[in-house]
Amino acid sequence: MAKPTRKNEEVDVLIVGSGPSGAVAAKLLTESGMSVVTLEQGTWFDPGDYPGDKKEFELAGGKQWHPSPNVRDNERDYPINTSESDVEPLMQSAVGGSGTIWAGHWVPFLPSDFKVRSLDGVAVDWPFDYYEILPHLEAVEQLVSSSGTKGNTGYPQQAGYPTKQIPIGKTGMKLAQGMDKLGWHWWPGLNAMPSIPWQGQNPCARRGTCMFGCPEAAKWSPDLVLFKEAKKYGHRMIAGARVREVIYDDNLGRVTGAIYVDMNGRERRQMAKIVVLCANAIGTPRILLNSKSRRFPDGLANSSGLVGKNLMMHPFGLVMGHFDEDLESWKGPSGQLINTLQFYETDEKRGFVRGAKWGGMSAGGPLSSKGYVGSTVFKDGGKVEDTWGVNWHKMIEERFGRTALWAIVGEDLPEEANRVEIDSNLVDSDGVPAPKVIYKTSENSKLLLEFHAERAKESMEAAGAVSTSVMPQMRESGWHLLGTARLGDDREQSVLNQYGQAHDVPNLFVWDLSAFPTGAGANPTATLMAVAHRQATQLIKEARNVEAA
Amino acid sequence: MAVYSDSDREAYAKLADFLIPEYNGKPAASAVNVHLEMLDEVLRIRPDLDEGFRRALDFCCGKDVSEALNALAREDDAAFTALTTVTTGGYMMTDGARAAVGYPGQEASPFDVDEIPEYITNGMLDRVIARGPIYRDTKHL
Ligand SMILES: Cc1cc2nc3c(=O)[nH]c(=O)nc-3n(C[C@H](O)[C@H](O)[C@H](O)COP(=O)(O)OP(=O)(O)OC[C@H]3O[C@@H](n4cnc5c(N)ncnc54)[C@H](O)[C@@H]3O)c2cc1C
Ligand code: SF4
For residue A121, what is the enclosing H or E element? Predict the structure, then answer.
């Protein structure tokens, strides 16, 4: 065990950000004997505070527990200028990061995702492939107490999951029947939540409120598990610590730590031999661009000019099927009940490249029904009476509890024009310059979503849906943020090498989704944690060789 | 938080009952007190709705309900959204409305993890397996 660190003492490793990537880093590095401090701008959440088991949960989800920091507007969040973005980025600022409110859909990337240039002639290949990641994936599948069914034909064979499948419920079964009729691929949902008590997590109780935080302490979240383990080995979490910049020493040519603002508004320094950024694909480029020095006047580790560029946010569509039968479609997990990779791979005949994964889910509580009929879809020429009054009751009768949905997560291709910058005016509650996101949905993404929405509609009809509702693209759908400090072999074309180490600064690493050169068409956290596991394993192996500050 | 007088609450009850009237065994909004303690409860949970809700009340004051709400929806979407969110939010938190729509809330539903799922016993998953792998392999690259 590393000796406990005193305040402001130089540590071996400083991690910034405590989401899933920071948690993997903290656990592995601390267990290897390094002294590690994590700085996290958010604070600890208590599962008892989550609204999911309270009557108010959907109302609270519209503000305090909304996934957009711009809507929550908490002092611990930083604001994001999204006036030039088609999509609103979503995240949480807390110990555990967005892992506190993620849905737990565990969807590893596929082999083709690492080789899109070779296979489809677009974007770039990764410097490593699926098979190199696989052992790390299998390791993190144990860490997150996953539950699922081995043998998914959408993937090469792998080891299996520590806990058995959570029931897919009436809604999952309905969706599966549609796919079965059409002869399309589907598989019971793999989730980062155990079906039995496991590693201190409770079994999922199917409350279906994962994205408001799990009140059962069942869904895997970094604060529940990995940070508690890391603490046993001497890891120190400093919560409420907002990093303003990483300190670069022009003479040494290395980073030496970070300047942060504590909960009392005091500026402090944490010195370290190695800095690992895990602040997500908006938070990390923000820190790098805010960290200026003689050598890096345009932001730390930015000689390629690519810091902040190539932001990817998965194009997201929703297709709902409304059924005659009572599906109890407020029941979870939410969590994916089932999923499909039927249309995942490129088929040029479709007029676009790459594809999407669909996650089958229940439609949620009664206020979610406002999402498909309600105040915000008051069309030109329409009348309030069309959706309110008796018609509102009819909508609830026909849809609430009877709605299954496909959540379509498509691949977004990297484009330099989609980017994170520092806004010229906006600052957070500590006065630190805040980011601006400039993002346009591409033609490829639009075509992809249209095609997938049509197929998803067909599958709902095959399942016997009485009617369907399609939301081809939602603005508040930036759950997956990727690509803004990409890794690669060519230092002109990437910010990091294949181990997430900055080409320009040998003791600076980025292990969050900023590092991903392409984004796949799948929820990214499984692969994020597997890649972080690979990078941490390599750093431990090379520890003595890493040139330390 | 703004204080709502009895007459504000009466005026709101009329709007609320227009949005959610009594129908097919389901109570009207005012029958489950959306204008009384539920209004206070919703605004305790969501103080951010207060301003828009107050604007909606002021806008509709003294007007024909249908005309007022249609004009509000066209002219001040934020106020209309606040009004409908307060109303549906309050309504769906009440035991009366929940019982009427058959919603037990996001209750825990424990399950038997060893129960063999129907999709295994009826051969549905076997049919997926029989169709074989569908991913593109990259071992050759
Ligand atoms: C509602 C929601 C549902 C999701 N569901 C899924 C899902 O089902 N499956 C899936 O695969 N993915 C899902 N995601 C995405 C998933 O949550 C992210 O991919 C994952 O959390 C990224 O991990 P991370 O560690 O890179 O970053 P984050 O989890 O975003 O953590 C970054 C942390 O850094 C901190 N930070 C940022 N800047 C600073 C600073 N300057 N100083 C100090 N600290 C800072 C933040 O406060 C935050 O805690 C979901 C996301 C959301 C928002
Ligand atoms: S569905 Fe399961 S994991 Fe999700 S919130 Fe409910 S109990 Fe937690």
Answer: none
Interface pTM (ipTM) of the complex?
Answer: 0.96
The answer for residues whose C-beta is within 8 angstroms of residue A123's C-beta and 6 or more apart is A116, A117, A413, A414, A517, A518
Of the residues B20, B22, B129, B134, the best mutation for testing chain A's interface (the one with the most A CB atoms within 10 Å of its CB) is B134
Asked if B135 and A344 come within 8 Å (Cβ–Cβ), the reply is yes
| Assigned architecture for domain A11-365+400-545 | 3-Layer(bba) Sandwich (3.50)
Matching residue, tokens 């793999």: A190
b/e code A387-418 from CB counts within 10 Å (16+ = b): bbbeebbebbebbbbbbbbbbbbbbbbbbeeb
> Which residues numbered 77-116 in B keep a CB inside 8 Å of some CB on A?
77, 80-81, 84-85, 88-89, 92-93, 101-103, 105-111, 113-115
Model confidence, pTM: 0.97
Q: Cα dist. A105→A211, A315, A337 in Å?
A: 11, 17, 9
The tens digit of pLDDT for each residue in A316-347 reads 999 999 999 999 999 999 999 999 999 999 99
What's the pLDDT tens digit per position in B51-65? 999 999 999 999 999
Instruction: Provide mean pLDDT across the span A259-270.
Output: 97
Q: Where are the domains of chain B?
A: 6-101
> How far apart (Å, rounded) are the C-alpha atoms in residues B65 and B61?
9
Name every chain B residue with its beta carbon within 8 A of the beta carbon of A397: 24, 101
**Nearest CB partner across the interface for B26, out of A165, A365, A393:** A393
**How many residues in chain B?**
141
